Amino acid sequence: MRQAALLGNIHTKRTDYLKQAAAQAGLPVLFVDWKEFETWKKQLAQGEWLIKIDPPLWDSCQLAQLEQLTKAYREQLHGLSQAARNNHLEFLNAPDQIAQLLDKRICKQKLKQAGLAVTEEPDDGRYRIDTPQQLFRIMRTSGMHQVFIKPVSGSGAAGVTALRWQPHTGRMALYTCAFVHEEYGLINTKRLRHFSVPGEITAYLEQLLKLDCVVERWYAKAQAENFSYDLRAVVLDGEVQFLLGRLSKGPITNLHLNNRPIEAEKLPIERKTLEEIAFLCKRAVNCFPGIRIAGIDILLEKETMRPRIIEMNAQGDLIYQDIFHENSIYRRQVEMMLKWIRTCAD
Fold it and tell me: Could you mention a single GO BP entry for this protein (predicted)?
């Protein structure tokens, strides 16, 4: 018998609103908590399963633990991939592809190899940057004096840092949600901080660059209502299911930082640009076979409105502006599950 399952976390909006959509459609969905993952894995031989994988919850806010936590998650995903070889398992998102998308560098390399427009890297990202001195040198030689610095692992703006540097004057400005804690080192917060003292910025960068980071050009973004904005596209089976604008006065647009969401229809985006966004998203998910659900962050260059991919997230489908209204994203996922079950019945 074919069955649908959600591997996730109890009492979260992801779980509650998928279960709500499933109940409305009359679809029984087995919920499995990540805490019971190892026990449940032994039961997979019973029947055929279509599994949606939601990310585990992490309690730590220490950025130094990001790689360790991500490694443990990759091992769990690998366990699911191995189990699929010996059991009748299918996934809304294949676990090995989720694992690839956990690494911003690997994701960007695959998109670039496919010829897609992504945020550029100084020196094309050929060298890892481990110190502030290396960073300033490559910013000078590339002429890229505004950059974002991001740990390769993590989401939700964890460790994301925007840096502006004027090499002729030495003036600097840095924006981040992280700060250096005396006991725990770099920790992530939900508050955007601004630094302008070069010594403080260099000390912070010393800590951040000890993590494996990617460095990207900081673009001037399209504007609306005196805010700059970027977009989150939720893509299901290659089609943009939901498109949300994120308005911000600062360089980091994540909505949990009290930035302002706006329906894409209310933004001054021409139909031609929307079509380019849809085509870009379709090509992006095609780079990762087995990915049916993705959240893709996109910027529009201020002068040209050219779309570029900032990041992809295989589990970026939770949009409050949708779940509190039509819940269309999770209803569509339930339809995907129902279609799989009915294919067997037919």
Answer: SOS response
